[in-house]
Amino acid sequence: MSAGTSGTTTTSTPSTGQKVLTLAARNWVPIVLIVVGVIFIAQNTQHVRINFLAFHVGASLWLILTIVAVAGVIAGWFIGRNRLKRK
């Protein structure tokens, strides 16, 4: 063998940083939407009165927006899961 080389070969496995970058590159639109949503919720902190059908609730707007966003994520997860089952 020549100087400076060894007889072992190394397998290149992606590091955690590379995995994160790959995930971010593939999912940049949802990541941007999440960041924009969090900023929007954080800027709307005033106390509001919510009327829904016969219910009247007074709460912080950030709390209501967070609940609606979580409900949307759960609904999207169920819809996506059902689409995968049909295929």
Secondary structure elements and pairings:
Elements: H1 16-26, H2 28-43, E1 47-52, E2 55-60, H3 61-86
Antiparallel strand pairs: 1-2
Describe what this molecule looks like in 3D.
This protein has a domain at 28-46 and 60-86. β1 and β2 (55-60) form a beta hairpin. The chain has helices at residues 16-26, 28-43, 61-86, and strands spanning 47-52, 55-60. With 87 residues, the protein is an alpha+beta fold. The protein is flat and about 60 Å long.
What would a concise description of this structure say?
Residues 43-80 form the Lipopolysaccharide assembly protein A domain. The chain is built from three helices and two strands.
Task: Describe this protein with a few key phrases.
single chain, 87 residues, alpha+beta, two-stranded antiparallel sheet, 2 strands
